[in-house]
Write a structure and sequence with these properties.
single chain; 124 residues; mainly alpha; Four Helix Bundle (Hemerythrin (Met), subunit A); 6 helices
Amino acid sequence: MKKITSMILAIGLGGSLILAGCSSNNSKVSDGVNKMLDTTAQLSKAINSGDQAKVQKVGPKLEDQWSSFEDDVKKDHKDLYEKVEKYLDPTIAGSEAKTLDKEALGNLNNQLTDALKELANKTK
């Protein structure tokens, strides 16, 4: 009887550790996505107001934010990883350009925001 009880406890503890690990990854991704969504909102305001200096300051932050959790997204949500990547790099490049193309950068930022929102819904 002791062996069965010990086995059940070991299985329960192992399962709890696995679930805790999954929750940790989802929390990391969720926090990262929320930070990126805040940044894309700031970027959108700067684009709309034509504040190129602010655009150049805010846009590159997206890369550092993304790199902190992108491996987890790539592992668990490959399709959404590719979708975010599709719009992330051009958005960053557009934010660093010498001349602000409000329409093009605004569209890219909106598409990136939509992809991030989709990812946020998957990781709730």
